[in-house]
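Quick illustration, no need to memorize.
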Amino acid sequence: MTDLTHFMDAEGRLVMFPAKRKMKLQALLYLAGKFEKDRIYTEKEVNALLSRWHTFGDPATLRRELYHHRLLNREPSGASYWLEPVQPDLAALMDKYSGRRQSPSPDVPSSDGCEP
């Protein structure tokens, strides 16, 4: 388990958003854990919740990162947000966002529709 201690204050709030991928993903998982399952949030409520759990004053970046990494989902208009029902673990996120392309399954046709 990655240790976020260096990025948190005594009250458990993030004092900075980590730059390194592994720590950033761990911070996002930590923040996603603050949302209630099966609850719909307005953008204002998401920002308020995130503001309670960080001190650097940028809930919009955190909200966008949570959405980008599919920890939160939203209406296309951005009017409402919710926690994704299935949350990945750190290893799954690291694998997904490592920058390495995974080989396609032999049963999956290539994206251009041509045979290999």
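The chain is about 35% helix and 10% strand.
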